[in-house]
Write a structure and sequence with these properties.
2 domains; Lipocalin; disordered N terminus; 1 helix; mainly beta; nine-stranded antiparallel beta sheet; about 280 residues; single chain
Length: about 280
Amino acid sequence: MKISWLFLFAASATAAWGQLSTNQSLSGKYFFRQVMLLTDGSTSPNVTNTMSGEGSITFDGNGNYAVTGQQLSGTAAAVALTASGTYTVSPGGFMTMSNPLKSGVTLNARLGQGAVVGSSTEAGPSVFDIFIAIPAPVGASNVTLLGSYWVSSLEFPGGSLTNIRNTNFELTSTGAGSIVENTVTGQAANLNNILMNQTVGPITYSISADGSGTMTFPMAAGLNTDTQLISGVENIFMAPNGVYFIGGSLAAGGHGLLVGIKNYGSGTATNASWSGFY
């Protein structure tokens, strides 16, 4: 399964804040989503547990953070997640922080102009994860999600690799809670890893004033949670000005990550559009 879109998002979101970044460069309320696979550490690893967490994370500008949210573990239902930890921001946006989902593990992260992204690259061969945090907007509504977006997802249903699946598709929001398109493109391990299109809809969404919300993918006739590429309610968190959103499911065993970015504009993007330090 291809997950290069994760690294593309990470690269585009982490433009450095110059060479003078410090702990004070990171403060205030952010939303985050984190997905973690734990393995037995062998050369042919087996997944021993999958964890996902999301919610708000508040950085105090002095190297401390507090988390309030929910987490999933294995196939169990979501439970409350409260955590606190520390972080350090160095010049150039280089950053480390204690892992919200696994104590004693350090996230290797980068602070950019619109996000924090990281993973536990120093944790050894038994921890594989990705962490994304975005600033929380002020005064959001359904109109914050307006226009055309490219959306990708990577999910581990039931916390295992058996039905691993990903998607990449376009959706256009009306700004009033509905989506114009009803086609999802993707592949799944239990569906022969064949790229396919599925009709799923009507897709709807709702955004609260704090920037949190939901996006709902109804179950299509003749499909179920194993055969539909993306289904049910996905919690989403909007970035300021609606330029992108992150999220994922909190259904029991609903591990994964959903990312949507505003469409650059039909016919306007060129190689020159990607320039500078990212």
